[in-house]
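#structure-requests
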Amino acid sequence: MTMDHGYNEEDHPNTFNKYALCCAIVASMVSIVSGYDTGVMSGALIFIREDLGISDTQQEIIAGILNVCALVGSLTAGRTSDYIGRRYTIFLASILFMVGAVLMGYGPNYAVLFIGRCVCGLGVGFALMIGPVYSAEISSASSRGFLSSLPEVCIGLGILLGYISNYILGRHLSLKLGWRIMLGIAAIPSVIVAFGILAMPESPRWLVMQGQLGKAKKVLLQVSNTTQEAEHRFKDIKIAAGLDENCNDEIVKPQNSSQGQGVWKELILRPTPPVRRMLIAAVGIHFFEHATGIEAVMLYSPRIFKKAGVISKDRLLLATIGVGITKVSFLLVALFLLDKVGRRRLLQVSVGGMIVALTVLGFSLTTVDNSNEKILWALILSIVATYTYVAFFNVGLGPVTWVYSSEIFPLRLRAQGASIGVAVNRSINALVSMTFISIYKAITIGGSFFMFAGMSVIAWFFFYFFLPETKGKALEEMEMLFTKKSKEKNVAMVTDSTHNV
């Protein structure tokens, strides 16, 4: 595949398009509801346990079932978005959130709460997959990191709103009413987002994939700053879709036209070397995002602070709000670093900081665990280490995961390739959230964070060896980037063999 590089975005410094920004913000708003559900559940569990009298095992199940269902949702979302489009897939995610929130808000018993959580989980799977993909497909190479990380920022904002909701509603409403309103109120923004999505344009790359060139060109003119930029992007997308770059028909039949058929074979059964490398990178980064323990901190932070010595329920919820503020603050910092510093460097700095913070957290919690009295320095160190870990995670690994996996796959494989990554993400998320209580009871809470520190060390080396830098590369150049890396690896192996002989 040959790309025309007559147009260079670096020669046009004002490449940030306001209309593309608005589209990405609206598409990302569904992630606020997803994040809210995660954040509010961390505090709601305290009240649900007291009201419904559920066990630790039931708590683990209700916390983790969302991610099991999100796994199903994410695998379905790839094919769905190829069939009905990116925009209507976001609309569907909003409707699922609305139905799930209503069921949980009603929640007369554990069974109905469980069903509502499952429906929300399907919505989470759809939202996590489609938000970054849509944002990546409407953005230019120079602003893709910023726009594609907006869904992750919105998740962080949603988590923070969930924590604040816990604190306010938990203090001022009765036990039976409080947690139900905490969970059910998410139905309102879901409806607003559903209608807002309908005012957005469809992804130009999906439109080209369907042969709707006239509509695609119109959208590209809206999300590009100049006609020259729009024409350049349009030409590259047509080539990626298997069309003649000079074709100007309104509607055509693309050479690689599909609504998802045959993609699984191309991804899993018979991948080319570059596609195999892309899949390894996407699966790996999603695996390590949660294998390094972030869900344990975000979902069970009240338990961590209680173990460290914070006893008051109000102080527990306030300390948890601090976690949310830290998350959002450093996600905002990451927004402006992704397109300047690059994905690889942010990952290396981020995971390096996480290793240190997790080690310190494991040490301080172990000290508290082995003492019969309250140790003030260990309590302070535990809180500082928790906040430091959240900060380093959200300045790098958190947002880069979603940006990277949404941008590396070729057009024909992007939606379902991203859905595989999200499926792995949700699987590990579910595993951590549903087993964390059992794990820390088996190896102590300090031991569990030493385990996460060890996983972070492995993650650092994986990112160093398997993830090439994608900053500033057009989506249509990714296959060449990973082909280049594959060739470099083969040349190195041949050179080593020749040297040994």
